[in-house]
């Protein structure tokens, strides 16, 4: 006979998984592929990833006691993550836009670098 798991048991297991993830980076999360000489940029800051995962673990652990509430919280968490992602992309795009829209004083080299940054940014958008 398998023992019943309590919310405390689920929370402890979630904490163990979180600690394992923090000790070794997941190569499939948050890092888009880039071409040669381009530094990959994470979609979320490391502390944001930790916070979002912690919130998810708490939501998942709470499902046993309040399934409907857990699903509502999951919906809110996903909406929050999407909003943060959209804000980050909008901020990056504004920075790129500012870099090359300075009038006729922009050199061809600066435009080439701007195009490379746009390519990297576009790749991140497609991979998100």
Structure description:
With 128 residues, the protein is mainly α. The chain has a domain of 86 residues. 69% of the residues lie in helices and 0% in strands. It contains four helices and no strands. α3 runs antiparallel to α4. The radius of gyration is 20 Å and the shape is elongated. About 9% of the residues have low confidence.
User: What proportion strand?
Assistant: under 5%
What is the helix tally?
4
Helix content: 55-70%
Mean pLDDT: 76
Helix-and-strand structural type = mainly alpha
What's the gyration radius in Å? Answer: 20 Å
Identify the overall geometry. Answer: elongated
Quaternary structure state of the chains depicted: single chain
Number of strands: 0
Ranges where pLDDT stays below 50 over 5 or more residues in a row are 26-36
Largest sheet composition: none
Terminal Cα separation, in Å? 43 Å
SSE order: HHHH
SSE layout and pairing:
Layout: H1 7-23, H2 46-62, H3 67-100, H4 108-127
Helix pairs in contact: 1-2, 2-3, 3-4
Q: Short description, anyone?
A:
This protein is mainly alpha-helical and 128 residues long. It is built from four helices and no strands. The radius of gyration is 20 Å and the shape is elongated.
